[in-house]
Structures are given as C-alpha cells and as structure tokens.
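Researcher: Please translate sequence to structure tokens.
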Amino acid sequence: MERAKPIAVLGAGVLLMLGLLYWLFFSSPARYPVVTATLLGYTNSTPGSVTAVFGITNRAGVPVKLLAGCGIQVEASTRALNAGFSETILGSGKGLITAISFQAPPRRWRARWRFVRNTLHERLLTLRDDYNWPVARGAHVIYAADSQWLPSPVE
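Model: Translation complete:
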C-alpha cells in the first residue's frame, strides 16, 4: 500500500509532462493573430521612387515577432524589400512605424510583412534552427499582414 502511493505520484507527473509536451509541440495554433499595416502617408524620395510610411500594429492578444523585410505586391508580381528593421518583437497592443522605399509602381500595389506568434513553441523552434539541432518538431507558422491595395502614387 505504501509503495503504490509513490508510483501513483510518479505516474501522474509523467502524464502531466507528456500533456505539457503535447500542448507545446502538437496543439493547433490559436486564432489567427491580427496584425495591421496601415499607410500613414508618403514622404520625400528621389525622383522615380516612392517612400511610403506605414504603421504596423499588433492587435492580437499575444506578442508576435515581426520578421525582417517586407514584400511589395504589384497586382500580379511580388518583390522583396528591406523594411528598415531586423526581427522585432511587438507586444500585444504595441506597434511601430517604418518607411519603405521602392521604384514607383505603375499600377495598384500593397505591402506585406511576415510575422510569427512569439510563443514558447516558436522560440524553441528558433533555437532548433539557430543551432541546427536534428529535432523534427514541426515548422514555423508564418502569418502575413497586408496593407490595403493602394493606387499608384505616380498617377
């Protein structure tokens, strides 16, 4: 009888650890986090190019990691740009302002930033990637924050 009690406690501890590991690595992602990208305006730039200023806001209930760079989509094509910042953590309700410069598009365009939820699972995946650990625990879930379609600033 006395021996059964430590075995039951050990069994409960093992089940708790297995449940925690399952929750960290295999549970489905929470709702799609809401990150908005809003054009604040244009500013001075060299002839033939556009410098657009955007406000990026994390409206999700969890912190997100905004990945470096952004993309410009011009109706049917996409190109990568330097967004002026490296990977940045945005807490819930926080935001930043960034400017991007690019050759003026002749048609409608929009900007796209990529981000991940800054959870323990994502941080562990990043450690795995940084140190090339041979652990298969899934892939990063990368989300996108798109601005609205904007008219060409040269029209």
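Researcher: Any highlights?
Model: The CA atoms of residues 72 and 111 lie 5 Å apart.
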